[in-house]
Amino acid sequence: MSTRRGPSGRLYGVILAGGRGTRFWPRSRRNNPKQLMKLWGKSSLLRQTVDRLRPMIPSRDIWVFTNRNLVREVCRQLPDVPRAQIIAEPVQRNTAPCIGLAAELIAARDPDAVLGVFPSDHLIRKPAAFHRVLRLAAKQARLGKIVVLGVSPRWPETGYGYVEFARRPALAPLRALPVKRFREKPSLAVARRYLKTQRFFWNSGMFFWKASVIREALQRHLPRTAATLAAIRAKVSGPGGAPWKRLPGVLAELFPACENISVDYAVLEKASQVVGIPCDFGWNDLGTWSAVYDLLPHDDRQNALYSETLLIGSSGLLVDVPGKLVAAVGLEDLVVVETKDALLIVRRDQTQQISRVVSQLEKARREELL
Amino acid sequence: MSTRRGPSGRLYGVILAGGRGTRFWPRSRRNNPKQLMKLWGKSSLLRQTVDRLRPMIPSRDIWVFTNRNLVREVCRQLPDVPRAQIIAEPVQRNTAPCIGLAAELIAARDPDAVLGVFPSDHLIRKPAAFHRVLRLAAKQARLGKIVVLGVSPRWPETGYGYVEFARRPALAPLRALPVKRFREKPSLAVARRYLKTQRFFWNSGMFFWKASVIREALQRHLPRTAATLAAIRAKVSGPGGAPWKRLPGVLAELFPACENISVDYAVLEKASQVVGIPCDFGWNDLGTWSAVYDLLPHDDRQNALYSETLLIGSSGLLVDVPGKLVAAVGLEDLVVVETKDALLIVRRDQTQQISRVVSQLEKARREELL
Q: Is the pLDDT of residue A2 over 50?
């Protein structure tokens, strides 16, 4: 690294692992959200996220932000990440306070730190392409830019935000371009228009910036939260012995005062020095069972079967019912997933409706099923 | 009874309860076939069959024929039927040997006996109408007739045999009419023609005849079986003490020599003195899950739910998944039934295909699932 040209600044990985992941109910639960799940034999998405970064960012430079319910399991899955760098937020405050906290805590140790922010529940199928993008993103961040990775859209998705470029960008050679505007989740008609122009890319939720740049941006755009985060840092980095052990108590006391807001909305949409890297590294946010189905290998009738299934005239099924025989007769395009206490059967084109199942269970206070 | 005009002869009930009932898999199994199942809180179909007969035939005059796997459970469900009258066939030989055996055993005690033969796995929703038919059937049988109950067809069913009358019969007043011919299960086109003529009635599988008439018919049409059955009778009704206790051993020795053939095919189609009673007493043979669904009460979206189910945009479902929450999203017209070891999901219009599931399990020697 020291022989590299241009500005220096060590790259740290900030992994966001506090998500609730209700969209994989009944397999995902409050205490076992999507990022911690094993999807049929592979390691969890969180573990995959760390392993994917390791060639560029060693585990000792990884910081993981999660919540109190999950911290124990996160530590279990990531024994290589220093325990003091796995932080449990006492309350959910969306991404801006979380990323700001990461910047404060890391900058307290390394003022020149460059941060890469990574969701922990996405899939990336082309790691080599991902690493090339990472190198460019870190370089741009060291120059003081705020960098966002824009994924080349493959369909008019209405569930993602978009990054708008002024002109239709090329994917090769890899370049960082000024972002014209961030766009929130569009309607289907708008998403179709976006796709057609080829100027709109999916907002991947992956950002790169210097810790100092984040702090300044928050001071400008979210001053109350910035002050709270600075106070947290002061309490744990001052003299007094074993300061990091005081962090949970300090967070419990001060963190709830942070505003509940996303970093996109709080900072990115307002900042001027934002660049985007249009890219394609086989990204999939695995937002629904249907997205998972699409990625799985299928038999010759388009079934993805993860438990013993006897099929008669059935096709397009995803079946995961551990420990019992499933007989499917005359079925088409369904997802069937069972746990000890719940059975989900959903049409494959309606898997986004599972959030309604979860919110009905919440309303009915069926805590045991959440 | 003794003040009744016309020929006398006590009416006995012969209940056939040896059926395997694979069509309700996975709820029905070899050791828990349809006739022994409770369908959602009611008593079993076998128990209902006995209770339905009781106003006309007391339990002491009921004989039940089943197999060795089921005899214990049959005895448990029918404590009011004398134990010596619950007979376990050592092997399956279809209905002709079974009914012939009933005639021999009952005639050994009461030579004037009149037998009514009743399947144990059907539903009858109008018991009063059924009792009126029973009275007429017994009267005709006492006259030496072979009586079959023909059920007024409600759709062009291809799964039943038919009873053909020479002319379109009236349902009221109740009358016994000569049967022109018995017809085996027709094709759909033929069944539609049958329905149109109004001369073809569903063969209910319920027959009435004197024990002596059955014996003579079998001697004429099935002499080898008739001789075997007479030999069985001789061995258990002769002198030598507690002869009925010898029955299981005698059956094991001799019964397998009987021909494997239905009484319809062996006798009814050939006999001349057959009369049919065209009738309607809300009969349903509950041949499939779909038939059961039709009979159940439905919610306003045509769902019949027998376990906790959270529905989103779903209709026409039969759900019976004990002990867990079912979430159904975007589903239409399915049957979902789960047991400890199996989950069946089947389109409601394909429930007759379940026999294919069972035969595949048999082929794969999955004894634990049969």
A: no
B363 CB near a chain A CB, below 8 Å? no
Residue pLDDT, tens place only, B273-329? 899 999 999 998 888 899 889 888 999 999 999 999 999 999 999 999 999 999 999
Query: Hey, is the C-beta of A353 within 8 angstroms of any chain B C-beta?
Result: yes
Of A313, A325, A331, the CB nearest to B369: A325
Of A327, A330, A357, the CB nearest to B310: A357
How confident is the model over A210-228, as a mean pLDDT? Answer: 96
Query: What are B334's strand-pairing partners?
Result: B347
Residue B40's pLDDT band (cuts 50, 70, 90)? low
Which chain A residue has its CA at the smallest distance from B351's CA?
A329
Domain end point (choices B234, B264, B284): B284
In the block, residue with structure tokens 């009952």: B106
Residue A338 lies in a domain: yes
Residue-level pLDDT at A6:
65
pLDDT exceeds 60 at position A5: no
Taking the Cβ of residue A322 and every Cβ of chain B, the question of whether any pair is shorter than 8 Å is answered with no
Residue of B325, B333, B335, B358 to mutate, testing the A interface (most A Cβ within 10 Å of its Cβ): B325
Interface test with A, best of B307, B317, B335, B343 (most A CBs within 10 A): B343
Q: Count of domains in chain B?
A: 2
Whose CA is closest to A289, among A230, A204, A346, A357?
A346
Give me the long-range contacts of A68-74 (CB less than 8 A, separation at least 24).
A69/A30, A69/A31, A70/A17, A70/A18, A70/A31, A70/A33, A70/A36, A73/A31, A73/A32, A73/A36, A74/A17, A74/A36, A74/A46
ipTM passes above 0.95: no
* pLDDT reported for residue A172: 87
User: Rounded to whole angstroms, how far apart are CA atoms B1 and B8?
Assistant: 8
Which pLDDT score, from 0 to 100, does residue A22 have? 81
CA distance A344 to B225: 54
> Could you give the 3-state DSSP secondary structure of residue A194?
helix
CB-nearest to B329 from A326, A350, A369 is A350
Closest alpha carbon to A331 in A359, A302, A352, A358? A302
Q: Are A200 and A286 in contact (CB under 8 A)?
A: no
A238 or B231, which is more confident? B231
CB-based contact, A363 to chain B, within 8 Å: no
User: Which residue in this structure is represented by tokens 């000569």?
Assistant: B178
* pLDDT in the model for residue B243: 66
Token digits of residue B110: 């009461």
Is A334 in the B-facing interface, judged by CB distances under 8 Å?
yes
State whether the Cα torsion B95-B96-B97-B100 is positive or negative: positive
CA separation for the pair B107, B309 (Å, rounded) = 53
- Residue at a domain's end among B227, B255, B284: B284
Residue with tokens 């911290």: A71
Do the strands B334-338 and A200-210 form a parallel or antiparallel pair, or are they unpaired?
A: unpaired
Q: Is residue B3 part of a domain?
A: no
Provide the token pair at B257: 């020599």
Based on the fold, state whether residues A365 and A316 are members of the same structural domain: yes
The answer to whether residues A124 and A134 touch, using CB atoms and an 8 Å cutoff, is no
Cβ contact (<8 Å) for B341 and A325?
yes
What is the residue-averaged pLDDT of chain A? Answer: 93
Whether residues A195 and A331 share a domain: the answer is: no
The Cα B2–Cα B5 span in angstroms is 8
How far apart CA B82 and CA B78 sit, in angstroms, is 9
**B39-58: average pLDDT:** 90
A349 vs B: CB within 8 A: yes
**CATH code for position A181:** 3.90.550.10
Kindly list the residues from chain B whose CB atom is less than 8 angstroms away from the CB atom of residue A327.
Answer: 25-26, 342-346, 354, 357
| Domain that includes residue B230, residue range | 11-284
